[in-house]
Design goal:
This protein has 480 residues and is mainly α. The chain is 31% helix and 2% strand. The protein is built from 15 helices and five strands. The longest helix has 17 residues.
């Protein structure tokens, strides 16, 4: 994709801030990838998070103006409503949201804060890919993606609830150091685990992620509604193991090589899912960009799933640039027909809400592709100008930080420089168990990632701050 950075980002970001201040929502967003041929992309708009918030759009690419604010319903404790989505110009809708079972209820369910997946519990069978859609009828004309990558995705930090669910564990730091290797060849990632629920991951790391999700280690690191949704959507057994394994294996494959980043990756992803969907795997959000006007068609391109990925951005970028063997090792069966699909704008803009919706909702595919996007940007998009994936894979990446990766997800690869560590999205993921400072009282840095890692403080960010640690490019890890 070409570097098309013409979108009116300043206007959209102003709208985002206005909505946050007006609604007092816990916001956050997950914008995923930029185009494989270096196209710019915006942050994906967020899912109707069960905590009561939906996502905001991002910048980059041809970001849209305007934006749609999703009210999100009330939060668990009667908290604030969520911030709305903000992305591109969009077009007329092709019949509304492609969400399975319809869009989530804006009225909110008990402890869900704003949306309720109508599709039943997700991934209860523990199968790998639930998408696996058939070929869509041959390749379209070869046009490439010269217009820049479409909006990537993500919601504003979800949980509208301020419920913290108990005190944050202040206990000692987790074991640091290298039980596993975050680099290495495809399918590696440390010592082979012995737990049958996740045989490819280090057994200790898998068990720790399970303990985080069960609220038995770092108690209260996530808000109460997130733990409730985990129990609802991922009941004990194969479904729960698959959730924990998808996190552990995504980090085994994609965590940066710096010290202890396998563990830090696990903590980032476990926290970020709250920001994007509050652990509702069926979350589908159709924002204005999702229904943008195309040449001879209207897009059907919602943001989807636990980490709110968009077909035309994250999935598109991984399809043409990412290492497929790693995706298979994580447990995602990538549709084989996509790997020979011509890179045409209309195909990628229209198939995400129909043919490939269940593929994007698949827990392993969703978490793996979003983690890839977070960390390839964190390790390569830290310069004064955006570095798109095609250029990154040519060795042109510039070291960045976790804040770089998160803001690339929120606002797209061309996020406003310099990276702002106080943006509510990275702040909430790192520090705030109740959501983020825009929608709840978040004193100091004692929740989420900080609590998982045992490094929280009551007054400020940890020092040294892992989110500000410089992470170096690793194209052999993130590129085919």
């Amino acid at each position: 994709m070409s570097n098309n950075n013409s979108g009116p980002w300043a206007l959209s970001r102003g709208l985002r801030i206005s909505l946050i201040l007006t609604l007092g929502a816990c916001s956050g967003s997950d914008a995923d990838g930029v185009g494989p041929d270096a196209g710019s992309s915006m942050g994906e708009t967020g899912g109707a998070a069960a905590g009561g918030s939906v996502g905001l759009g991002g910048s980059g690419g041809s970001p849209g103006t305007g934006g749609v604010a999703s009210t999100g319903g009330t939060t668990v404790t009667g908290g604030t409503t969520a911030t709305g989505g903000r992305v591109s110009t969009g077009g007329a809708s092709m019949g509304g949201s492609p969400s399975t079972g319809g869009m989530a209820s804006t009225g909110g369910t008990t402890l869900a804060g704003g949306s309720s997946a109508a599709g039943g519990t997700a991934n209860t069978g523990g199968t790998t890919n639930t998408g696996g859609s058939p070929a869509t009828g041959g390749v379209s004309s070869v046009g490439g993606t010269t217009g820049g990558s479409p909006v990537t995705g993500g919601t504003a930090i979800a949980g509208g609830s301020g419920t913290t669910g108990g005190t944050v564990a202040a206990g000692g730091s987790r074991p640091t150091g290298g039980t596993t290797s975050t680099g290495g060849a495809t399918g590696s990632g440390g010592s082979t685990g012995t737990n049958s629920g996740c045989p490819g991951a280090d057994a200790a790391e898998f068990a720790l992620v399970q303990a985080w999700l069960n609220n038995t280690t770092a108690v209260g690191a996530l808000p109460n509604y997130a733990y409730s949704n985990i129990k609802k959507n991922f009941p004990a057994g194969a479904a729960f193991d698959r959730l924990a394994c998808s996190i552990a294996m995504s980090c085994a494959e994609f965590a940066p090589m710096e010290t202890d980043w396998l563990r830090k990756c696990e903590a980032v992803v476990t926290s970020a899912i709250v920001a994007e969907s509050s652990y509702n795997p069926n979350s589908v959000v159709t924002d204005s960009y999702a229904t943008r006007a195309l040449t001879g068609a209207t897009a059907n391109d919602p943001t989807v799933g636990l980490l709110q990925v968009r077909f035309s951005s994250t999935m598109h970028d991984y399809n043409y640039n990412g290492p497929m063997a790693k995706m298979a090792a994580i447990g995602c069966a990538w549709p084989p027909e996509l790997q020979t699909q011509a890179d045409t704008t209309n195909f990628w803009a229209t198939e995400g809400g129909t043919t490939y919706l269940s593929f994007m909702q698949d827990v392993a595919c969703n978490i793996a592709s979003a983690a890839w996007y977070y960390f390839y940007n964190a390790t390569g998009n830290g310069g004064s100008n955006a570095v798109w994936i095609a250029n990154y894979c040519k060795g042109q990446g510039i070291a960045g930080t976790m804040v770089t990766g998160l803001l690339s997800h929120l606002q797209g690869g061309s996020y406003p420089r310099p990276a702002d560590p106080n943006n509510p999205y990275p702040w909430g993921i790192e520090c705030c168990s109740c959501g983020n400072p825009s929608g709840c009282t978040c004193t100091g840095c004692t929740g989420r990632f900080a609590s998982f890692m045992g490094i929280g403080t009551t007054s400020s960010r940890p020092s040294p701050d892992p989110f500000l640690e410089m992470l170096t490019p690793e194209p052999t890890k993130y590129c085919k």
